[in-house]
């Protein structure tokens, strides 16, 4: 009996500590979720251009074509993980506008959670980890991206930040699986891949773990394949996205190319080469210095990568600094005295790149009284002759005038309202979404 009592006494503090940690985590998640929803509530009824022109149509197409079974068709140039979630909202009978906003807001909460966990590694006690998480979920660009724009950049960002957290914890396979899921969600996850390369070259990450990145991408394609989707289309979705930008030079991001109205294709190619050389040079220099790759060094490496890659690459949109917005906040909490200004400057640049596309159409509409004052603004209903059509399915109605209805959105060009002969100017919204 005495031995049993001793064991109980010895184990009880451990159980109590574990419960305290779980309770703190649950309270943190609840706080992040409540604050995130409250901050976004005012924008939930906003109908952005991308919603009117694209997301709503995708939702309708899924609803009209058997729910999940609609995923056998190529009606979107987003990869299927997002479409799984959108199809789930259709199945749950969630209204389209709420559904499009609900998906990214849920990822906003997950993003805040991983920011909390990473900052907790720096501050095991105290309120700073929760403060960092709340700062991230309340960043203007993060709030506007999900609740006003209806974009889902928080999806790949949350998974990528989760991958970084597990790298810091030494969970190599889990980290690479999350990076693979982020890559399957959106191509912009590659902005953090230099960190994986650095880890492998410093032998902090077994190279075999990198197989989890394409493995997770392929695994997430399986449900769509079972539903009848074409394997080739699933595997080349990002090549399809890149082809839409071929020959165009569309800059809406505050990066090295923002002052150029047009640029020859050769200069775009040079920009890509310059980015590759710069990234490899920095990784190589870091490897030669043989850093220990502490938690702080990983956070800084991730922040630099998220800033440098979209800054040097051509054809970047303003939302492509989303990871940089988040990681500069994390870095500032890790080195508050030296990097307090980094998130302020990054947020300033990102937010002022957002404003022309979110607020300017409203002001012009109010001044002129004409909802169509901005071409392709999305604030007016789509032309009635344009109907939803599955790409490549000629049995369904096509847009009048021979324009190809692709139902594209997000990061690529749109031909939904305009013929292929239209060549978008860098500031023309028609060629942007």
Q: What's the order of the H and E elements?
A: HHHHHHHHHHHHHHHHHH
Oligomeric composition of the shown chains: single chain
**How is the biggest beta sheet arranged?**
none
Tally of contiguous helical segments: 18
- Uncertain runs: 1-12, 374-406, 408-433
Radius of gyration: 23 Å
Total domain units = 1
Structural class by sheet pairing and helices:
mainly alpha
The averaged pLDDT comes out at: 81
- In terms of DSSP E residues, the strand content is under 5%
Helix content: 55-70%
Please give the alpha-carbon distance between the first and last residues: 72 Å
What coarse outline follows from CA principal-axis ratios?
A: globular
Give the strand tally: 0
Report on this model:
This protein is an all-alpha fold and 433 residues long. The protein has one domain (23-363). The protein has helices at residues 2-40, 49-64, 80-91, 96-122, 128-137, 140-148, 153-168, 172-185, 193-201, 212-226, 231-235, 237-244, 265-288, 295-312, 322-334, 336-339, 342-358, 360-368. Helix 5 packs antiparallel against helix 15 (322-334), helix 9 packs parallel to helix 13 and helix 15 (322-334) packs antiparallel against helix 17 (342-358). The radius of gyration is 23 Å and the shape is globular.
Summarize this structure briefly:
The protein has 433 residues and is mainly α. It contains 18 helices and no strands.
What brief labels describe this structure?
single chain; 433 residues; mainly alpha; 61% helix; disordered N terminus; disordered C terminus
